[in-house]
Amino acid sequence: MQQQSLTIAVNRFGLGARPGDLASIGGDGRDWLRAQLAAAAPVLSDSGLQTSAGVLGQGFALQREIRAERRSGADVQQKLPQFLKPIYASEATARFAQAVATERPFLERLTQFWSNHFAVSIDKQYLAGLAGSFEREAIRPHVLGNFGDLLVAAETHPAMLLYLDNHLSVGPHSPAALYARRRQRGRPIGINENLGREILELHTLGVGGGYTQADVTSFATVITGWSLGGGNGLFASGPPGRFVFRPAMHEPGTKTVLGRRYGDDGYGQGVAVLNDLAQHPATARHIAVKLARHFIADEPPAAAVERIARAFTEHGGDLRHVYRALIDSQEAWEQPLAKYKTPSDFIISAYRGLSLPVEAGHGPLAPFEVLGQRTWQPGSPAGWPDRSADWDGASALLKRIEWADAVGGRLAGQRDAAALAPELLGANLSAATGSAIARAASASQALTLLVSAPEFMRR
Q: Rounded CA gap, 328 and 395, in Å?
């Protein structure tokens, strides 16, 4: 039983076992997880990574150069992507390297969970250069804090404002809108509901959480004026690339969201709504369902959801208490291999298990693209899906096996699959898999069989 709890802790709550992990951790897997919660927030330390403000400041300056050069007929189509591409590669590689090497994989998994909950996608302009710094600046510092603080940090970050176009949202009765109508020039301006809708639908209450279209529209007016500095026109003033509240764009007046009236005190009006959303019972349940689905099973057990939601409510969104309730849910320890690994999980666990180095450059990132989960590119604000049915198709499985075969061929003679199997799979290792590895025709084939084994594909 103790061996089973260690195996579940390392592979389901963590990012996959490394050689020697199961033996060195010892004891009960729950204790190992609780100890990680007592540590500091999971900082990603790499002095070469830039801040969001730095990236945007340079990007805005580059765009001004591009506009000037375009007028002279120069071909400048690739200048901005060429600026952003190496920033993305550095950020994604640093994140990957941390996941492979970390001694606190539970915290790293939680970081990735919240980054996906507050998803931004690099297929939108500037996000290739911002997705990594968004995770470092808005998510990591709050993973062990309060959900309300995490919520405010995520929604006010330049990456989120740009991704969901809130920097373009202008109240219809704001000074900026009145001025534009008097001048009768320029493109039409008005409210953009993207951020308001996704906060309610994805980040807090969830679908069926009790909000209406009127709440979406009203909340969207509340957060008009939430913008960033250093752009052009209306957005030129303020520190480049940093959050700026623009009173001239803010819709004036008292607003009602979910039946509660909020007086107009500018930026504070939006924060007040976020604080109430963070404490709402529907938010507690929505977060509980997502955590239980991610860590326990595709169909979250009702008792576990109730326990996690209750901890969220009773402790005012204190995430350490929420995680402890998750760890204490017996259901999390009763279904070995209940979750099918996403491509990202699969790659990270293979690197950890086979002690593969994460080198600089595009090479280490290629498997994520080949297997269908390029880092920070979910393609929508809903983030990457979290159910087996979204990842276990025949074509996707074949790509995993082909990748495992390539890795096995590269490492032939350098790793002993038969010795590694019990160290990586622990109590989950079946007699059939152990026998297949032992009878493999070559060291290369044995490694392929290990990494493509059903027990390795699941957590």
A: 37
